[in-house]
Structure to design on (569 residues):
């Protein structure tokens, strides 16, 4: 068994880019909360971007490696330590048998990702390795990790021995993947809000409430009012949909959202800003910025281009340094 | 198809086709006519097509299209407009007819007696009214396989419970307003529970884990406890994920 969970974290699960094609049956796509970070981790170890990764929050798991492997962390900074020595995110590293990976302090962000070159051996359900906790399928036995779980890597890494942190890092600072200005597009029920509330929405600072999880982030802010009295007929919702709750507060639907909902859809977070909003911690203040569809698409395209460039660079480094194991 | 439809973004990677904000059988026919057109010829970049009471949402893979077009949203919007223009308002769409056995015994129907008293309908009559209508699956949501079906006879309509239960058993058949539905998994729930089916609405072991599909026509029929127990025995993987 390639890795051993010495101590489980509060929420460790395997995720890939999600399980699509089943939402009409009420089966939600799940998938990584921060898809951008998931891809960075995969790219830096030479995987296809959508290879399943371990997603975890803080308190994090303590992991013992039982064989050499090339890995990378991405996303939140939980002050990672490899055999006690500091590790940073977005920089690949090689472990030897017996190495211990631990996380000592919650510094920034909510979700961190661990990718291994070649990927993990996991359960597939309906074409995806994402964990569906509701039905108990996909990922690692359809559940969160527990102490003493032993998970296999798909490949045996045969390229180097010993522990090494590789000397290259992805720099994501220019991409606004960490931001407290979250861009949204007006939703179908945006005009149900009073004019005053529309102005409030764009001006005020919101705080992420602690009752927030993979299903949704509850926000605290000034109440918003709607002038439409009728109930909304249930309709599909999406990752990033902002719903107006009966008490005037907002909730942002996240990766494990229910497929349909009956609360007014005030706005939707643009795909390029999903990472930024996902990594806002409980207590963090932020604000919304209404933007156009064209700007949203432009921002997403910029991220795609970055990932393409990173992929070329990372693959080159791995190849030139002979770090890609032979059975790729 | 008439142009009173609104087509709008649900973020930058999904599109909603809105038919209005009401629930009417003739509207539902329009929704299903278009749903069938879209499903018969989906664009390869479409990840999901989700019908609901008065809308259809298409989730698309934006990254796929970026090399070919400036705006994936505009491209998919155009494809949908084209599909709408080529869909007749009411089309003969094939739908499946499904019959579902329900045991209305008080052990499985904690709200039946209370409802009958409140609505001044005899228990036998209540069951008769529930089983004699054909229901359309308007949409599936809330839980994997939870089918929202309508419409029940107005004499047995009842709003959701004031205080939802923390636990409703999988298979429980409920009524909320004009809708009837079946809980596919153990779950909290606010519907009035009037019976239970031995059939698995969701079965992880099956290739098609969800029994019902949007657009299905459903009829219920009454069974007693002995038949119920028998049917349960015949499905070792039924009811629970």
């Amino acid at each position: 068994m390639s890795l051993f969970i010495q101590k489980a974290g509060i929420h460790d699960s395997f995720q890939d880019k999600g399980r699509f094609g089943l939402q009409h049956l009420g089966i939600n796509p799940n998938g990584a909360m921060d898809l951008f970070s998931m891809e960075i981790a995969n790219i830096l170890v030479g995987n296809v971007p959508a290879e399943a990764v371990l997603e975890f929050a803080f308190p994090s798991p303590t992991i013992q490696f039982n064989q050499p492997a090339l890995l990378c962390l991405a996303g939140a900074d939980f002050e990672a330590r490899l055999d006690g020595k500091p590790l940073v995110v977005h920089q690949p590293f090689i472990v030897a048998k017996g190495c211990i990976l631990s996380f000592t302090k919650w510094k920034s962000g909510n979700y961190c990702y661990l990718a291994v070159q070649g990927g993990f051996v996991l359960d597939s359900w309906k074409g995806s390795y994402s964990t569906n906790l509701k039905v108990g399928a996909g990922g690692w036995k359809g559940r969160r990790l527990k102490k003493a779980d032993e998970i296999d890597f798909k490949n045996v890494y045969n390229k180097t021995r010993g522990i090494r942190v590789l000397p290259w890092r992805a720099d994501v600072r220019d991409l606004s993947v960490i931001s407290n200005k979250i861009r949204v597009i007006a939703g179908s029920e945006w005009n149900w809000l009073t004019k005053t509330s529309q102005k409030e929405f764009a001006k005020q600072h919101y705080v992420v409430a602690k009752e927030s999880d993979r299903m949704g982030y509850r926000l605290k802010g000034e109440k918003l009012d709607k002038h439409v009295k009728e109930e909304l007929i249930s309709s599909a919702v999406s990752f990033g949909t902002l719903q107006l709750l009966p008490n005037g507060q907002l909730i942002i639907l996240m990766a494990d959202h229910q497929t349909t909902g009956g609360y007014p859809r005030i706005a939707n977070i643009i795909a390029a800003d999903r990472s930024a909003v996902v990594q806002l911690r409980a207590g963090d203040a932020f604000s919304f910025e209404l933007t156009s569809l064209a700007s949203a698409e432009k921002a997403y395209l910029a991220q795609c281009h970055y990932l393409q460039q990173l992929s070329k660079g990372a693959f080159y480094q791995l190849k030139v340094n002979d770090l890609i194991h032979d059975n790729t | 198809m008439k142009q009173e439809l609104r087509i709008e973004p649900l973020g930058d990677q999904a599109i909603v086709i809105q038919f209005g904000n009401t629930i009417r059988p003739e509207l539902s026919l329009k929704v299903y006519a278009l749903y069938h057109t879209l499903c018969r010829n989906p664009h390869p970049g479409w990840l999901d097509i989700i019908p609901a009471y008065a809308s259809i949402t298409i989730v698309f893979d934006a990254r796929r299209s970026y090399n070919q077009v400036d705006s994936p949203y505009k491209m998919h919007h155009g494809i949908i407009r084209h599909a709408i223009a080529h869909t007749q308002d009411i089309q003969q769409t094939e739908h499946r007819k499904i019959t579902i056995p329900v045991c209305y015994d008080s052990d499985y129907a904690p709200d039946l007696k209370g409802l009958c008293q409140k609505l001044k309908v005899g228990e036998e009559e209540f069951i008769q009214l529930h089983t004699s209508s054909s229901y359309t699956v308007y949409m599936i949501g809330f839980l994997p396989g939870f089918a929202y079906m309508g419409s029940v006879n107005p004499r047995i309509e009842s709003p959701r419970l004031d205080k939802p239960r923390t636990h409703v058993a999988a298979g429980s058949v409920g009524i909320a307003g004009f809708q009837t539905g079946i809980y596919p998994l153990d779950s909290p729930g606010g519907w009035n529970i009037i019976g239970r089916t031995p059939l698995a609405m969701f079965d992880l072991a099956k290739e098609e884990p969800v029994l019902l599909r949007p657009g299905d026509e459903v009829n219920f029929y009454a069974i007693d406890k002995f038949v119920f127990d028998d049917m349960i025995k015949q499905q070792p993987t039924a009811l629970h994920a």
Observations:
- Chain B touches chain A through 48 residues (CB under 8 Å).
